[in-house]
């Protein structure tokens, strides 16, 4: 395998994870068993073909709920797109948008007044967006995408806060599983034609939870968040190096 083809990180994992981003659909029983023993690779979508594969999953998962969604395959300097694949199939993706003076964040379209409050306080904002996990996929895939985006945003570039727009039905999930807090209330999201709630997460808090629980998985002692399914902290230097090198 060439340097360019090596993933950011790979892992084997059992278990499945219900679709959290789009809705409450049923898992295909055949897929549930098939993915139990699969090896997953997390890569950066740094080519048009990879961005198109990620966009196909977005359209599939958002379209299932009837949401409008921009294909969004264009590359932008303030965005990175991560995707998870197994056996050549893309099964998870997310895009991380870094705030800057020229383009801002997607959430500015609906919550600019709220985000400007944080900017005036000197906070550096980034927004996980276009998150989609296929049905029947391990919860570790979701945790891996979020953890790698945290390393890129906080450890490498010094951003301080995640802000996200989520459907009201998913607010409890993001609060309970990652520690997000209410910030901007509920408004109509013009990009997908559905209601959205603005949430905020201090990345120092995320870092503390990773140090406390990362890598514990089922040995988490009753912790109900997703942090036990993040990578252990000793994996972070290698992930950081590969992200700095721009590897996939």
TrEMBL record:
<dbReference type="InterPro" id="IPR054597">
    <property type="entry name" value="FeeM_cat"/>
</dbReference>
<protein>
    <submittedName>
        <fullName>Long-chain N-acyl amino acid synthase</fullName>
    </submittedName>
</protein>
<dbReference type="Pfam" id="PF21926">
    <property type="entry name" value="FeeM"/>
</dbReference>
<feature type="domain" description="N-acyl amino acid synthase FeeM catalytic core">
    <location>
        <begin position="53"/>
        <end position="202"/>
    </location>
</feature>
<dbReference type="InterPro" id="IPR016181">
    <property type="entry name" value="Acyl_CoA_acyltransferase"/>
</dbReference>
